[in-house]
Amino acid sequence: MHLGGFEQVAAILVVCVASAVVAMLFRQPVLVGLLVAGAVLGPGVLGLVEITEPIELLAEIGIALLLFTVGLKLDVRIVSRLGPVALAVGLAQVALTAALGVVVLLPLGVDRTEAVWLGLALAFSSTVVVVKLLGDRRELDTLHGRLALGILVVQDVVVVIAMVVLTGAAAGGGAPVGELVGIALRGVVLIAVAVLVSRLLAAPALHLLGRQAELLVLGSIAWAVTMGSVSVLLGFSPEVGAFLAGMVLAATPYREAVSGRLTPLRDFLLLFFFIEVGARVDPGLLGSAVGPVVALSLAALIGKPLIVAALLGLAGYRRKVSIATGLTLAQVSEFSLILIALGVSLGVLSDPTSALVTVVALVTIAVSTQLIERTPWLVDRLGPVAGWLERRAPRAAVDDEEEPTPEVVVVGLGRFGTTVVEELLERGTRVLGVDFDPRTVVADRLGIPVVYGDGDDPTLAQHLPLTVARWVVSTVRSHDVNMTLVTALRRGGYTGGIAVASEDPDDCAALTRAGADVTIRPLHVAAGPLLERIGAADRRRGLAP
Question: CA-to-CA distance for 243 and 154, rounded, in angstroms?
């Protein structure tokens, strides 16, 4: 049955929802359901969906937005601290994992050239899968999350160089030195563009766009896609440019607001990527490739994590951090599929080889999803028997000092909010301000850190540092905004106190039922001191009743 573009999208969405629900009922991550949905919809089973250019474009934009949101959360200080470790471990891991792939494939009768290509494909891990799962678990900011991200960035650079080298080798001339130098120069140009925009344009542009939340989101998407396009023109993947675009905005107070509002759109577009991966699986080709599929899958799921953990142990990290990082990278990358597709286009590899790698990608992504979901349990079980992974004098579990967190978060910095902040500061309380007016964010008139955020954004609570905050105080008088904020805080597991402003007694009762501990009636609060002063003056004059 042939479906048009619109009908294909409809079929994708319906089957995705059904597969995700089934996965949820069986206590599996939604990601596994999406991969299965792609396999069911693809040419190998129902044949309802073809990998068309529109679907590939949607998938590519989704991946770019994912890397953009990762860049938004990346602190330059972390990059400078973990960069040397990520570079050394990333390069060594690629070489050792590729060698492992060749060693396990040659005894199975795989041609030596194909074994080299497949070994390289095995070496790369999926940036999309890792970032998506760590982001959902809020582990991107952990030490093992940052190490995994650094290694993934190194892998992405290596795969570009590998494509150049293998293309030259397939042509019989090796990798031209001039072309490798050209890659380096183009990389410098791309970084220079990002730095110039960061220094000259980012702050004023965001202050202007921040006056309208819709404009802020639209402008951010335009910036991410533009940098992705520049990256393509310079010979890199769009994901590299989108990642740098996010890093440009990471130092601004708007990063959490942009990230939160982009999340639903990003997740929707990523559906098409997972469908695309699943749809490439052809069950008819599995029978003749069981041996290589099993060998490569075990190498990715067991061999690669051991290699990563051992290298990090040599670098001085504790065994729990090393094991967690290794488990995070236990899958085959989407770039592996691109690498093998290049080999097919050059005539070096056959279509069955491409199908083999696609199956390995599906298997390892599905299994590694379970490994990442169960990382704490696995680390606790493996840690006691993995003492050999740890040096006698390992690094601390956390490489950077934690920044102080606020005791009270005040949402809304108008006149009433400013008064609340001033009273808290007089008492020596650490305060974080949240406001949707960019002029308030950059004014620094209160002497406290202020982040850009809107109380009616359901994702705002996810981006606030609430680990030790005792209270969240909303001085916004909109009932809808306060109801959204209170509901999001309680559903997100926040157990501290919540105080909200409202003038209507019925609204106060509804907010209390939703989870607010204190409701404030600002006009009454303001009138109280005035009436007390009037009463005191009357008593002095002998007029008090």
Answer: 13
